[in-house]
């Protein structure tokens, strides 16, 4: 056995001699950054070996610079360990390192009130149930149902209740002195609570992106968005894009189960943090709604992807679908919590786009309208006269920094804002750190300003110093250069 | 450790020195016969110690005769073992020894056809599903549903399907070349099968008695009763009657879970034997229906009995109730198999009586009608002008031999038929064995004939030899005797 220590967190793990560093990281719970899922193609899983430096492999000499190799930088997927060693994981190469981050809450929710109204399918009703006596021997459930009919003033013959709740009912009724609150969802009682809890009704909405998962806590009594958090989708270490994840799910042992577990873990972490931040109890969440692209949608449910991924590209199902939290393995919610999966549109146009269509109200627009979703997959919806046309393609993960030589995710050190004019270069890096790369919003800023002042022509071509339009200052002009035979614009000078 | 060997099956088990024989039997999977659940009251758990005979306890000297003690007969619940020993279990004292036995099938089913007709809620439909192509990218479920609507010629918007079946769908459709049979139960698809299997539709009906559990296999295509088997309810070793089982469920650690497991085991054994006898596959059973007294009904579902057992005696619920086999722990049926629990009437009048009411059609009778169910619990239903009145009491387990000095269950050696007239005594013992006792049908035969020829008077009192009516032969008269100060009628003379 040899011992591997990971910095900066000083995680220690013992492995068999000759073990792969990539596998060791996974065992230690550290997910290597990767596009190629450890196949030695993308060169993303760089680590710094501080002790126990290994001989570089052929792939490493191809994918790493001589300086990097000299420093001790290696690729996790290429490295086999034969000595105790200390490995530093770079923040930008450690998925999930940034943890959970807040999203901008929709504070201007009132702006949307004309097109949206609170219409939850969760109903909480406080009941004073008749106490039993020798002259009233109705069953426990019978008297709860009678109290419901009395309180609601309508027939409830359709009402269902699950066995676990029926089992809970007798003791709960008596502990609560026959004063209970019932929760009704989709014609079924999904929770029973002691006393009057009708004021506490929450739901969560999740957007499962290929790269990022966002979770929103909504007060279903008021419609208020109480919390909005996001986190990297932990599936990323098994592939940065949909195609590589489909490949992993189909071709790796337990691939589907592993990816399902990762997305559920990510959701669990968001739920935990949301509850921790807001002080709301897990049992107060009665419903979650989920949108996702069709691939992540299937992965969350544990549905095989093979027919989604190969012609003629079929989803297993597309309809909106209710299920219980207990049907999803290890999803940490009250077991009877309702999960509503919004309908998907096709194998590659998911329910996330549907949510966008609903949100914009574009279907009812009298004008021609275009909705563009620039995620890791990009989708475009065109609306005309109430007809909608949709298509999708891989748009990213450029906006997460993939395929961009200096690209990176929006984490510490990423340039996330740029302002260029003819004489001045301004940029901003996240957390005001040293710039380490550029993320999606920085790229959009940069490209739009370069286009505006003429450093990029209408065809998208980067101009040379000689072609530089009149009026561009020397400071800017000098940043147009050639390196290794390629035209570049140097946004930040090396120290 | 000491070794205990059980005869006649030569089961061996090692236990700690000083262990209880009762517990040892349970560990060895042998359920002692008992009314008092091992409290040393009923004296039923007699065993014969062939080696390692123990000193009799005070309770044993009270409950066993000196001859029995001399022979080595002891009570399992009173005996602690300090030496290796060999213990013979008497067939009549070993619950379940008799195993599974056939019931008389309802061959005269046609007699009931006027009042019953086949009206199953299981529907099997063979579908030829459109194959997908690049010009038909509907989802797998979408095309199955379309084929269903096309085949059935009606709207099926209400139709549900569970996640496990949706997960199964894509591979199954392709393996079956898009020719599948769907099973619909209660507005939900509960099974998907390759090819055309619409002809194979079976259901099982169970009557969960306190003492005996019966299972009937019904061909839901024809209504034919294919098999009828019964078996002792394995819960018996934890109490012979409802009250002792309620006591066990409430006061023993895991009592409820143990009793639930026992009744499920009994059902599993009946299902196994039924499938084995008929060659029908487990997956061809799409629904089971269950009737039981309310206590066993609650135990099967794992619902606490405390409020059922104490005033004002409330069932947790009484309504008819559908659930899936997967909701009952370790019930060995296809997970989506529907279970319909018939409604119960009150805490002590179960769904078994309801089934009797339905079967007799007494509710619609123009005459006053009385239904008597002589089970371990006895129930009486009086019907007049469409109104039904019900009451129940402990009627047994006399008819299973409990409380009768020579009583026993209807197993080998039990006198199950008696014919008396003034000069002749005829009796029949099961399997033509030596008579070992008398079972319920024997008792009814005997008492009715004794009443008819005057050996019992109208008040139920056994007459003395002197009171014997004129015309009774000497042979009969001599059987009226006094033993240990009690009047007796000697049905069979000792050898």
Walk me through this protein's architecture.
The structure is a homodimer of 495-residue chains. With 495 residues, the first copy, chain A, is an alpha+beta fold. Chain A folds into five domains: 2-93, Ubiquitin-like (UB roll) (Roll); 122-194, Ubiquitin-like (UB roll) (Roll), CATH 3.10.20.880; 202-344, Domain of unknown function (DUF4445) (Nucleotidyltransferase, domain 5); 354-394, no CATH class; 404-489, no CATH class. Chain A is 24% helix and 28% strand. Chain A contains twelve helices and 26 strands. Chain A has helices at residues 21-27, 58-63, 66-71, 140-152, 163-175, 242-251, 255-278, 294-301, 306-309, 351-360, 440-453, 474-477; strands at 2-7, 11-15, 19-20, 46-51, 73-75, 80-81, 85-89, 101-102, 122-128, 160-161, 179-185, 188-194, 202-208, 212-219, 225-232, 285-292, 321-324, 338-341, 369-374, 377-384, 387-394, 414-420, 425-429, 437-438, 480-483, 486-489. In chain A, the strands form seven sheets. Chain A has a seven-stranded mixed β-sheet. In chain A, a hairpin with a 2-residue loop joins β11 (179-185) and β12 (188-194). The longest helix of chain A has 24 residues, at 255-278. Chain A is globular, with a radius of gyration of 27 Å. The model of chain A has no long low-confidence stretch (mean pLDDT 88). The A-B interface holds A 132-134, 136-142, 163, 166-167, 169-171, 174, 301-304, 306-307, 311-319, 321, 323, 327, 346-347 and B 132-134, 136-142, 163, 166-167, 169-171, 174, 301-304, 306-307, 311-319, 321, 323, 327, 346-347.
């Amino acid at each position: 056995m040899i011992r591997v220590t990971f910095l900066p967190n000083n995680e220690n793990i013992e492995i068999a001699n000759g073990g792969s560093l990539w596998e060791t990281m996974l065992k230690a719970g550290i997910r290597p950054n990767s596009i190629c899922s450890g196949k030695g193609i993308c060169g993303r899983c760089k680590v710094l070996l501080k002790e126990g430096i290994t001989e570089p492999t052929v792939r490493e000499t191809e994918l790493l610079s001589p300086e990097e190799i000299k420093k001790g930088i290696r690729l996790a997927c290429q490295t086999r360990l034969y000595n105790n060693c200390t490995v530093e994981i770079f923040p930008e190469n450690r998925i999930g390192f940034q943890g959970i981050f807040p999203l901008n809450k929709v504070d201007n929710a009132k702006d949307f009130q004309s097109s949206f109204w609170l219409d939850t399918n969760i109903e909480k009703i406080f009941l004073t149930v008749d106490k039993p006596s020798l002259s009233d021997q109705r069953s426990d459930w019978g008297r709860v149902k009678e109290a419901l009919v009395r309180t609601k003033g309508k027939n409830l013959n359709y009402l269902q209740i699950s066995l676990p709740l029926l089992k809970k009912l007798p003791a709960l009724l008596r502990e609560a002195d026959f004063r209970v609150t019932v929760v009704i969802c989709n014609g079924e009682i999904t929770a029973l609570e002691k006393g009057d809890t009708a004021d506490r009704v929450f739901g969560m909405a999740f957007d499962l992106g290929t790269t990022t998962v966002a979770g929103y806590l909504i007060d279903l009594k008021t419609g208020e968005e109480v919390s909005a958090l996001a986190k990297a989708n932990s599936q990323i270490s098994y592939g940065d894009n949909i195609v590589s994840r489909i490949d992993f799910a189909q071709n790796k042992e337990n691939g589907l189960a592993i990816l399902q577990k990762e997305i559920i873990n990510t959701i669990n972490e968001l739920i935990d943090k949301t509850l921790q931040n807001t002080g709301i109890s897990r049992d107060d969440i009665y419903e979650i709604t989920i949108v996702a692209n069709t691939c992540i949608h299937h992965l969350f449910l544990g549905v095989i992807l093979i027919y989604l991924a190969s012609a003629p590209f079929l989803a297993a199902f597309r309809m909106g679908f209710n299920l219980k939290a207990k049907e999803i393995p290890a999803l940490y919610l009250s077991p009877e919590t309702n999960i509503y999966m919004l309908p998907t549109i096709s194998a590659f146009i998911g329910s996330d786009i549907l949510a966008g269509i609903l949100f914009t109200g574009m279907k009812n627009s009298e004008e021609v309208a275009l909705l563009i979703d620039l995620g890791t997959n990009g989708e475009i919806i065109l609306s005309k006269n109430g007809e909608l046309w949709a298509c999708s393609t891989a748009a990213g993960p450029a906006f997460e920094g993939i395929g961009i030589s200096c690209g990176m995710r929006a984490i510490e050190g990423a340039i996330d804002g740029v302002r260029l004019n003819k004489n001045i270069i301004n940029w901003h890096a996240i957390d005001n750190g040293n710039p380490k790369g550029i993320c999606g919003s920085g790229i959009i800023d940069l490209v739009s300003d370069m286009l505006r002042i003429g450093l990029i022509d209408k065809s998208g071509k980067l101009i040379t110093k000689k072609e530089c339009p009149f009026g561009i200052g020397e400071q800017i002009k000098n940043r147009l250069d050639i390196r290794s035979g390629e035209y570049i614009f140097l946004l930040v000078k090396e120290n």
